[in-house]
Amino acid sequence: MWFSFWRSRDRFSLDELRYLTDQLQKVQIVNEVNKEEVVSFPLYVEAVRFAFHEESMVRTAVRALTLNVYHVGDDFVNKFVTSAPHSDYFSNLVSFFREQCINLSKLVSECPKNPCSESVSAILATVDEIEDNLYYFSDVISAGIPVVGRLITDNILQLLIIPLLFPALQIDADSNVKIGAVTSLYLLCCILHIVKIRDLANTIAVALLYPLEAFAAKSETKLNGFVSGNDCALENEEPDIYSVTSVNAGQLCLDIPNKASSSQVQPEDIITKKKFSHSHLPLRETLLSYVTDGDDVQALGSLSVLATLLQTKELDESMLDVLGILPQRKQHKKLLLNFCVEFGQQALVGEDSGEEQLFSSESGFLRDGVCSELDGYLQKLKEQYGVSCSVAEAGASPCIHRNQVLDALVNLLCRSNISAETLWDGGWLLRQLLPYSEAEFKSHHLKLMKDSYRNCTSILLQETKGIWPDLLITVLCDEWKKCKRAIEASSPRKEPKCILLPFQKLNSEDIPAESSFAAGERMNELLKVFVLLHQLQIFSLGRALPEQPPILPPIDIPEISRARTAGLDVSGPKPGTEIRLVHALPCRIAFERGKERHFCFLAVSMGTLGWVLLAEELPLKQHYGVVRVTAPLAGTNPRIDDKHSRWLHLRIRPSTLPFLDPPKSGTFGKMRIKTLVDGRWTLAFRDDESCKTALSMIIEEINLQSSEVERRLKPVLDLEL
């Protein structure tokens, strides 16, 4: 009956399948009960045979049915689904999931070679399937069957994390590793974020204390030799009923043999047998090395893993402390609790020695209660998963590990080859760990941050004379609010999949590096970094962070300025505005081939804004004209032609930056900003002197504009360190 039903699935809609599933569950699903034990469960047994069907609709129906079975809450049913051979369904689920992870890694590695929308869509589709699988694992665990939670934990660790994800974090890339480092970092984030199992989270955290060679050795052993404590099938047993090699295998998209009889997984397919040059490093230090020395994507992935660990509620605080990422507020809470237990409440009342001991970073109380839990998980990794190696990290003081993390994060902030977006993620993590007083923050940390901040300030001063000074203050204020919101947030801004598809910047190959658009993006990146360093400086000094940066207000425009003389108000010139042509110079320009027009040229600045204008004289009103064309003054880069001394060349940039007003909708990773090209004006003046006068006028107004921008920025640039 089941076979004919599934073969006719095309006749049913998804809603109809859900209805049929609900109706089937009203049927007597357990056919045989012998001595208070379920011995036959055809509905469940036949359904899970199609758990890996090529049609996602069928897989969804099977998952809905199995979840309903797990939520029945009957002890006999629970015993049936967790006993051999039916328990192999869970190992096969993880095996199927592992193959999806390997496929994702292939797609990610091929995407840079062929960066098209189809590649991005394929990655996103695979990511959706992987996250759906993890949510299914989470739903199964939430049914409350303890054995199932242990089965899923054991299989995720034994089949995926230990043999594949951890070895993939090696610093020296190896072609024999089936999963790349970036994909591994993403998967670790997803597993910790979605699969809410305390033992799984703590085991992963403790495993980060091991050197890579411990997992390299483990990955070279037979995976199918693993036997959980739940009577999973042994290596010499025949394939079970869940092996997808029957006559119906043609209906399935992937062959998932049971773990005990697998012949597809070969040790050399998982990781090479060679000695890694960095295999002595603990995985925790490998993550930190990505932060300090890795590329932008590796740094982002490593930061995401550290942030996810910090945010994982299932992870014991003692494990966070051992990793060196226990948030500062929890450090103080732990110190207080341990101190009270040891010395009693009287130690908190004004005793200098007690207070000094309480808040000392070298306090011995930090390690209270840590060793027993840590030793338990170390023993579990050795006995249950065969990971055995000397772990020097376990005996180190959490203070040492915490300083190592702070070192890595501060060094990250001093790197010039990392994107501002990644630096913001590092800033968020540093904010969580940042001590509340300068005395607790090491002097060399502060020096590095101050030096980086000063360098950034010097470059920012140059931007006041650059192409976009008129937008500099606006962008600065906008990024200030965004950065404050980001680093004060309770969780990181980005989803884990951002690791796989980093945002494509505007200065791509199709945009020249000398264009105003590339310069605008560089300015925006610089402002993001400047704002982050500025705010972290304030935090490190124990000051409150203001809602707005300290910017001076604008001053009144002098009456003798060209803008006032022309009769312009604070709104600036617009096409159709009538102005006085006191300082304007006659010129000619052709916007179309063979169609030359006569205008009066004028350059004006009003505070931080400035324009170049082309106005037509009014025939009935002497010395007055109407503005026909306007363009930003900044970035015009005026230049007299080498061969024609009466010609003045101007670059005309847009009035705003494209990324300040991005598209409001679009698929993740596929948002594209239309490539824009700078305009060009070539103005022909009556004589050489007029051309030189126009050039001097532009330079003078640009200098006035730049000086006003620098004046208003002075308070934010003069942060007292």
From TrEMBL:
InterPro entries: CLEC16A/TT9 (IPR039272), CLEC16A/TT9_N (IPR019155). GO terms for biological process: endosomal transport; regulation of autophagosome maturation; vacuolar transport. It comes from the Eukaryota. GO terms for cellular component: Golgi apparatus; late endosome. Coiled coil: none annotated. Residues 35-70 form the FPL domain. It holds the Pfam family FPL. This is Uncharacterized protein LOC111303477 isoform X6. It comes from Durio zibethinus. The gene is LOC111303477.
